[in-house]
Amino acid sequence: MNLQQRYEWIESYLKGNLEGDSLLQFQEKLQNEPLFAEEVEQHRFFLETLNQHAERERLKAQMNVFHKDLEKHKAWVFYKHPIVQTFWKKHFPTMAVAASVAILTAIGVLWNARNLNNLENQQITYFQSLKKDLDAVKKRQSSLEEQNEKQDEPVVDHTATAFVISQNGYLLTNYHAVKDATAIYAEAKQDSVQRYKAVVFYKDEQRDLAILQITDTQFKGFNTLPYTFRYDPVDLGEEVFTLAYPREDLVYGKGEVASRTGFEGDSLEYQVSIPVNPGNSGGPLLDDKGFLVGIINRKHTKQEGAAFAIKAKYIKALVDSLEAHQKPEKPIILPKQSRLFTMKRPQQIKAIQNYIFELKVYGKEKK
Fold first, then answer.
1. What's the total number of domains in the chain?
2. Are residues 163 and 210 in the same domain?
3. pLDDT (tens digit per residue) in 165-194
4. Same domain for 132 and 85?
5. Which of 149, 169, 195 is the last residue of a domain?
6. Could you give the count of Cα atoms lying within 13 Å of 254 in the half-sphere of its Cβ?
7. What's the whole-model pTM score?
8. Among 40-54, 113-127, 195-209, 304-318, which stretch is predicted with the lowest mean pLDDT?
9. What domain range is 79 assigned to?
10. How far is it, in rounded angstroms, from Cα 23 to Cα 212?
11. Do residues 199 and 184 lie in contact, with contact meaning Cβ atoms separated by under 8 Å?
12. What's the CA gap between 343 and 229, in Å, rounded?
């Protein structure tokens, strides 16, 4: 949802207008996301401030109307009547005291209102300053926690790439990239930093494929995947591209299908004219329309700028085999629709990038 919809959602909650699933969803987000809870509290304070200001303006407007009406209906003729003059002379001292008290009271109210407004402004300034200090403390605490986590982690042996194949936390990579791992962490560093612990859930050593499952307790699931698989054969010369982590940043590679078979005629693979490096293993191979046609698994050692990719149909066979033999509690549901085929390449990359992870594979414990 956009920013306006988000504020309307918060205001509906504060006004007590949310019901049913919408209310439960809001309360769950409020409970699980401290930053969102803080945002709701700030919005509540903002609305209360606006209401107080509006009430003061309403009272001011009423007073203006009263004074104008009084000026319009001054009854000087009535004042000259003998009875009125007698009454005026008799009760003037008492009325003067009452008027003085009323004037002093009005001045006191105005003075208090002015001081209240100044105090309110000071409170807002103090609240903003306090929020900045709190954010700084949170940032330092997060940095310290991250440093402590890194100190407790085993040594990084190597890196690879993996990509999401199911919304409920399953990633796909090469088996050779994770076969000796004592710990695996998956990181994505695009729109926001995501870092999850993962384990090898299912493997196929012969086809060099491995399915990873995110086991991190903070993981809540992925959004709908923007891509799907293409299982029919790719033609020679078709344009393909890949996204992977041969280094700390996500790297784009573009090329063409050079052969429908892999090394020494291996029917399991395609040969593609894309330069790859260590870390590219496990990266997705996509066609020009953004359909997944395979997974990069190795480079051609005797031919510069050539690599091999396992075909998508064998990925499907791996998942089918898992469903037939293990029947996991959380089934792997491969994406069935794509929204990439109408996009240009930069937009395709932006839509995909948050679903591609760098794998940090740990092979031995710290001494």
1. 2
2. yes
3. 999 999 999 999 999 899 999 998 877 788
4. yes
5. 149
6. 6
7. 0.57
8. 113-127
9. 3-149
10. 34
11. yes
12. 17
